[in-house]
Amino acid sequence: MIQSHKRRVRHLPADIEQAIGSAIAQAQSILCVSHVAPDGDAIGSLLGMGWILRSLGKNPILALADAPSTDFDYIPGFAGIVGASSVGDDYDLIICLDASSPDRMGAVYRPAAHDRIPLLVIDHHITNTQFGAINWVAPDCAAVCQMLVYLAEALNVPLSGNLAVALLTGLITDTLGFRTSNTDAHVLQAAIRLTEGGARIQEIVARTLQSRTYAGLRLWGASLNGAMLENRVIWAKISLVQRAQAGARNEDGDGLAGLLLSAKEADISATFTERINRAGEVVVECSFRAKPDFDVSQVALAYGGGGHPPAAGCTLNGPLDKVAADVAAALQDARQTQAQPIGQKFSSTLTAGNSTHG
Ligand code: AMP
Ligand code: MN
Ligand code: MN
User: Fold this and answer.
1) Is 70 exceeded by the pLDDT of residue 155?
2) Which one of 76, 140, 220, 222 is CB 3.0 to 4.6 Å from 162, fit for a cystine?
3) Does the C-beta of 124 come closer than 6 Å to ligand 1?
4) Shared domain check, 77 and 192
5) In whole angstroms, what is the distance from residue 24 CA to residue 132 CA?
6) Which parts of 56-200 fold into alpha helices (H)?
């Protein structure tokens, strides 16, 4: 039985499995961290790693630079996540999850104190800069939570209970409910194992994808009113004024780029969200989405951000209107160079295959 499970392990090369296994075996006190503005995969993989380490008898400290949304407080262990000010200097190992570069850890990672500690990077961003002592980067995985399914199996940690809820959260949120183009049979198999372990898809969907505040919906409405469409790129801005007028929380408004991408007339979508950073400066969070055959990760990378071909982002200094205009133009250029319009592709297929079609 164990043998057949082992054979199903994917995406965990033998040398990485060995390196991760021995790094964890040698450590007792382990700092786990994920990215700023944490999403479901960041929070799910952080808490999931915590449950994996606890079941191995380790002492994990789970830290995030930005407070996670209470939308995720159903995941067991949520209340134990600490902020950067509670992070000390001495750990045996640091595990960084779902972050493509060290700056994504925000204030949790202080190089002066931490760069002598072994750093294990577990990530699925194609733009990952391989900044750890051990780097397990699997761009063909839809979520870091999927990678942790394979890690738990390799370490003989049961995929059930608290761990299953945490990991299924990241799988569901990063795939938008198993709808993204990278949702393949392996993603579904991982989800099956987690549901067999007791996690429930419909409950997690109800808590995450299908849960918005009224103020958040009104903020979407205000932003959609000003949406622009040019050269098959659609984009919208979310200003600080709009957020205040709607009475919306910081995280309300997230997900709008995905909705914009449903426009039949567009292949690429973007939202530009105005925020005040810790230094009190106006910054613009840019969030990009692309339909299959299009890639927004390279535009994000060129602007100092990162991500995946279908979903990427970057953070730029304001002002909002200028950033939106410049980046929307860059996305249109990328769109022009990437692929012929889908209509043309379909019509050439139809012509080749349906000569009698009238
Ligand atoms: P989001 O649009 O915030 O859901 O992010 C989409 C993808 O882009 C995620 O995989 C993020 O990790 C990545 N991403 C977003 N913003 C940044 C950034 N400033 N730097 C690097 N990666 C980013
Ligand atoms: Mn993430
Ligand atoms: Mn992710």
Assistant:
1) yes
2) 76
3) no
4) yes
5) 14
6) 111-114, 144-154, 161-174, 185-196
* Ligand nearest to C-alpha 100: 1
Task: Report whether residue 100 contacts ligand 1, using a CB cutoff of 6 Å.
Answer: yes
**Distance (Å, rounded) from C-alpha 118 to C-alpha 193?**
31
Residues 106 and 135 in one domain: yes
Instruction: Evaluate whether 134 touches 118 at the Cβ level (below 8 Å).
Output: yes
Q: Is pLDDT above 90 for 3? A: no
Enter the pTM of the model: 0.90
Helix (H) or strand (E) holding 128: none
Are both 93 and 65 inside the same structural domain?
A: yes
Please check whether residue 134 lies inside any domain of the structure: yes
Whether the Cβ atoms of residue 319 and residue 282 lie closer than 8 Å to each other: yes
For residue 70, give every residue at least 6 positions away whose Cβ sits within 8 Å of its Cβ, in sequence order, or none: none
Give a yes or no: residue 355 inside a domain.
Answer: no
Sheet holding 306-307, edge to edge: 228-230, 233-238, 268-276, 282-290, 311-317, 306-307
Alpha-carbon separation of residue 166 from 62, 162, 198, 319 (angstroms)? 13, 6, 11, 37
Which residues have C-beta within 8 Å of that of residue 189, sequence separation ≥ 6? 8
Tens digit of each residue's pLDDT (9 = 90 or more) over 286-328: 999 999 899 999 999 999 999 999 999 999 998 999 999 999 9
Alpha carbon distance 333, 201 (integer Å): 39
Task: Identify residues whose C-beta is under 5 A from ligand 2, the ion.
Answer: 39, 41-42, 98
Q: What are phi and psi of 290, to 5 degrees?
A: -135, 145
Residue 249 inside a domain? The answer is yes
Number of structural domains the chain divides into: 2
List CB-based neighbours of ion ligand 3 within 5 Å. 41, 98, 174
The span from the CA of 233 to the CA of 220, in Å, is: 18
Question: What domain range includes position 191?
Answer: 2-207
Cα–Cα nearest to 221, from 250, 184, 259, 174: 259
Q: What is the 3-state secondary structure (H, E, C) of 277-339?
A: CCCCCEEEEEEEEECCCCCCHHHHHHCCCEECCCEEEEEEECCHHHHHHHHHHHHHHHHHHHC
Instruction: Please indicate, yes or no, if residue 352 is contained in any of the structural domains.
Output: no
